[in-house]
Amino acid sequence: MKRYPGKILVTGGAGFIGSHLCERLIQERENIICLDNFNDYYDPRLKKDNISRLKNNSKFLLIRGDILDRVLLEKVFQQNKISKIIHLAALAGVRASFLAPEKYIDVDIKGTVNLLEMARDYEVSQFIFGSSSSVYGLESKLPFREDEKNLFPISPYSVSKLSGELYCRSFNKNYKIPMIILRFFTVFGPRQRPEMAIHKFTRLMKWGKLVPRYGLGNSLRDYTYIDDIIDGIMKALNLNKKIKFEIFNFGNSKTTKLKDMISTLEKKLDIKSKIKKLPDQLGDLPITYANISKAKKLLDWTPKISFEEGVERFLAWYLKKEKFLNTLTY
Prior knowledge:
Elements: E1 7-11, H1 16-27, E2 32-36, H2 44-50, E3 60-64, H3 70-79, E4 82-87, H4 101-121, E5 126-132, H5 156-175, E6 179-184, E7 187-188, H6 197-207, E8 210-214, E9 220-221, E10 224-225, H7 226-237, E11 245-250, E12 256-257, H8 258-269, E13 274-278, H9 293-299, H10 307-325
């Protein structure tokens, strides 16, 4: 991997994807600034555990702070030569976004604009924005392509992510900041957020609780393993040719039904779950399915971990950490 003269800022660096990315960057001997506010969207102790092995590394600087704090951001950029920004910090969750849409405007849109302004003012050489497959809407053609024009997201969260993409495009156009948008498709694996389906369903099955199944269980998701996502981010970071603005889908390009995901967990855990049947969930797309031909061509990126193998790896982590995970607040 090419080393950069300055530091790489990873926002949301103590989260699920961010902590894995920080570890990989440290392995590559990069100097990292991890900016995270450790909010209570889920138990902050999980984030602390995510980065516990990095805290004492001389190449890792943890800054507890918020991307909405302009004074803090100015201080961070004034005191550090930041060459690249990988912006993963966000208020996540399609369903939760219906309960407080204004918070998603603040964090996912205003916070992104704050970082774009820092990138402009401090002449950052590359800005990578972590977006979401949810920006594709009900009218998008399958499998989803990056050049899809019918983007009509149906949740406040997905609207905020598409808004972030548009701000990235605007700053690229007006200030020539090299920009890469990464649309992540249902990322899973060790450290997955507790409210995400695979983690949540595993916990409920182990506790003997009801597992919520929305609709008939026929919704389809393009589950993508965390290591493949990190490989993709690293390839985007090290893209040889000069990129002005590009969007890439990062998905496994295979779909799994909700009911099949549940049965896979049951099989691996040797547990028969108790299903609570619920109506279709507001804001959920019936299918996410990535066309990844562009990432294959320009990034030489192809996911390697199958859904079944990824589930096995997640469960190995979960069972190893189960005692700690059971102490968290859900």
